[in-house]
Design a protein that fits this description.
The complex is a heterodimer.
Chain A lengths: L1 H17 L8 E6 L5 H17 L2 E6 L4 H13 L4 E4 L7 H10 L4 E4 L13 E5 L1 H18 L4 E7 L5 H16 L4 E8 L4 H14 L5 E4 L5 H10 L13 E3 L1 E2 L2 H8 L5 E4 L2 H16 L8 E3 L2 E4 L3 H4 L8
Parallel strand pairs in A: 1-2, 1-3, 3-4, 4-5, 5-12, 6-7, 6-8, 8-9, 10-11
Antiparallel strand pairs in A: 11-13
Helix pairs in contact in A: 2-10, 3-4, 5-6, 7-8
Chain B lengths: L1 H11 L1 H19 L6 H25 L8 H18 L3 H29 L4 H20 L12 H5 L1 E2 L2 E2 H19 L1 H11 L1 H6 L4 H27 L11 H10 L11 H20 L4 H26 L1
Antiparallel strand pairs in B: 1-2
Helix pairs in contact in B: 1-14, 2-13, 3-8, 3-11, 3-12, 3-13, 4-5, 4-6, 4-11, 5-6, 5-11, 8-9, 9-11, 12-13, 12-14
Classes of the chains: A alpha/beta, B mainly alpha.
């Protein structure tokens, strides 16, 4: 037994000394937060297409929402010799360690979907994301006009995502600012922290609808939470078409298939649309070009678009739920 | 027949089997997976194994009594955010690191103490007791931070997770010390013999005059303390206190202990086996990642490996009988 172990050990050590990796063609590391939702698949579709168009190898990893794991994955990518890293980060603070590591290895770091500011010792090469504040303000202004036109007062239930997500903070900020400007018709009744967890969203929405029957509008930070919201509304007997008695306005965010379908069914008035395919595509393209010496300017903030019942057929095509 | 059974028993004996499997897999990865043998990648594997090894060593103690500690991930989250908060409140950088780390270790030991008391005094099964503390303390971490992370940690703190001692990454140095110390406690001290005896048979241990409750209490203290130490490294490496820190690690921790040959029913196990099991899991992740295998396939393979090793453990136990 000892001999067998000794032989295996010796061969493994010899192999570690003798077998270096062959030189490979340039590759780009892509560190994703998750792939458990069509939103992420929409970004990934853009990333894959860009990789194909540019003829570059992509090393794609997902951290399942674990920030520590994501940093380890980026360390691995650096060890593999990628020429650039594209990242949809999990946590805006801990990712700075990975940015520093990329800086030390002289590998450009490009963010995608979530904005990240450079710090003194962690420089971001470029980035593209939706301007979540602007999009939220745009959508809520639309909703405030809609409420005024229909002589409604909106009592809002807000389903909040993870507070370590920069986009969530911007969506909350945008909503608060429009609410402040329209305090005569928009009021926040309850906030439910979901941490992007469907069970928590379902339980929170169910409890809130029971405790506050005056709620007539649900604003969620992602349409990932739409299924849980619809279940809670159904349980409360309030998932009715637009215009019918007891109807609750539902405001999903990002434009997945479920929200587009709910709009086609006339259950949902509007949704906040994000061009996530373009984000993924442009992030990889920029990472590739920066790694090849091209200089990029300021990061891009895409204003997004509003999908409403009146422009549904024209704009829904841009939403990743229609891909 | 007896000789055959004995040799099968020897081959399947926990850590030997894990070591052989690890060496074979490592060898194949070296030969077949491009960039696996890159020195930077091998260093990454060791650094990334550090947290898992330390956490799994703690879990091994609890497994030795046929129990489990679900609260380890809650300890990671709570100590991470509270330790980070302490560090941001204290002005002097070195003092803040010292007080933050001390507070983090205290939290781990305190939760381990609660688990130990609940299991020994209230006679609650460990999976219920630790599931309760898991829910309570992970909830507390989320409530305290509203699921936000705490950044701005003092610069000297990053040395624990990203610094080097004579060229060796600090997490590796700490892990090596933990493995040697815990292996010494388990295999070379009276307490270690008590742990094996209590894990094998409570009644016999009691008749032999072994303090059962005190021994079991110490198992949870080890688990809590080592979870806290691992959390210190993880927080330092991340540069932020995170309430959801390590939330996906429980399966890997249990996997490392089982693959390392520790019996799920208690009474047998080894720290070295656990350490090899933990490195094997990281090597598996790393090599399959390099091959471009999807994460859900990797998870399925890890699950299959745990089942396989547990099955071999059952065969081994049957061989002994």
């Amino acid at each position: 037994m000892k001999k067998l172990i000794a032989i295996l050990l010796a061969v493994a050590v010899c192999a570690s000394l003798g077998f270096g990796a062959p030189a490979a063609k340039k590759s780009i590391g892509v560190a994703l937060d998750n792939l458990n939702d069509p939103f992420w698949l929409g970004i990934k579709k853009g990333i894959d297409t860009a990789g194909k168009d540019l003829g570059v190898d992509l090393i794609i990893r997902t951290s399942e929402g674990d920030a520590v794991k994501q940093n380890s994955q980026i360390d691995d990518m650096i060890a593999q010799g990628v020429s650039a890293v594209v990242c949809v980060y999990v946590d805006s603070k801990s990712i700075l360690q990975a940015v520093k590591a990329c800086n030390d290895a002289k590998i450009p770091f490009v963010y995608c979907d979530r904005t990240l500011d450079s710090t003194a010792d962690a420089k971001v090469a470029w980035g593209i994301a939706t301007d979540n504040y602007a999009l939220t303000v745009q959508g809520w202004k639309w909703m405030a006009d809609y409420a005024r036109k229909n002589k409604m007062r909106l009592n809002v239930l807000e389903l909040v995502g993870s507070l370590s997500d920069e986009n969530v903070l911007k969506r909350t900020e945008g909503f608060k600012d429009v609410m402040k400007a329209n305090s005569d018709i928009v009021a926040l009744v309850q906030q439910v922290p979901t941490e992007w967890n469907l069970e928590k969203a379902l339980a929170g929405a169910t409890n809130a609808l029971q405790a506050h029957p005056e709620i007539n509008c649900v604003f969620m930070h992602s349409d990932y939470l739409l299924g849980a919201t619809i279940s809670a509304l159904r349980q409360a007997g309030r998932y009715t078409p637009i215009g019918q008695k007891g109807h609750v306005i539902v405001m999903p965010y990002s434009g997945n298939k479920a929200s587009i379908d709910a709009m086609k069914d006339k259950h949902v008035e509007m949704t906040f649309g994000m061009d996530v395919y373009k984000e993924g595509y442009d992030a990889v393209k920029a990472a590739f070009e920066i790694a090849n010496g091209k200089t990029y300017g300021d990061p891009v903030l895409d204003p997004g678009f509003i999908i409403s019942q009146s422009n549904l057929s024209a704009t829904a095509k841009k939403a990743y739920g229609s891909f | 027949m007896v000789a055959k059974r004995l040799s099968l028993g020897r081959l399947l004996s926990g850590e030997r089997l894990t070591l052989i499997f690890f060496l074979v897999y490592f060898l194949f990865s070296m030969l077949l997976v491009g960039k696996f043998s890159n020195p930077v990648n091998l260093t990454n594997i060791l650094v990334q194994s550090a947290d898992l090894i330390i956490l799994s060593c703690g879990m091994t103690f609890v497994f030795m009594n046929g129990g489990i500690d679900f609260s380890v991930t809650a300890i990671l989250g709570l100590e991470s955010v509270l330790g980070a908060r302490v560090m941001t409140l204290v002005g002097d950088p070195l003092l803040s690191v010292f007080s933050g780390v001390a507070f983090m270790l205290f939290i781990g030991l305190a939760i381990g103490c609660i688990n130990g008391l609940t299991v020994t005094m209230l006679k609650m099964p460990s999976f219920i007791a630790t599931m309760a503390t898991q829910l309570i303390f992970s909830g507390l971490a989320l409530w305290y931070t509203q699921s936000a992370t705490i950044g701005g940690l003092p610069r000297p703190f990053s040395y624990i997770g990203r610094g080097r001692l004579i060229g060796v990454p600090m997490p590796i140095v700490i892990t090596l010390a933990v493995v040697l110390a815990t292996a010494f406690i388990l295999h070379r001290t009276v307490l270690g013999r008590y742990i094996f005896a209590v894990g094998t048979n409570h009644r016999t241990a009691r008749i032999s005059g072994i303090p059962i409750k005190r021994t079991i209490f110490k198992l949870f203290l080890f688990s809590g303390g080592l979870s806290a130490l691992s959390g210190v490294i993880m927080t330092s490496r991340s540069g932020a206190g995170m309430p959801a820190m390590g939330k996906t690690m429980l399966m890997d921790i249990v996997g490392a202990v089982v693959i390392g040959g520790t019996s799920v029913t208690g009474g047998s196990g080894s720290i070295f086996g656990t350490a090899i099991g933990a490195v094997l899991i990281i090597v598996l992740n790393n090599s399959l990642n390099l091959l471009g295998v999807d994460w859900f396939v990797i998870n399925a393979l890890k699950g299959a490996m745990i089942v396989l090793v547990a099955l071999l453990g059952v065969l081994r136990d049957a061989g002994r009988r």
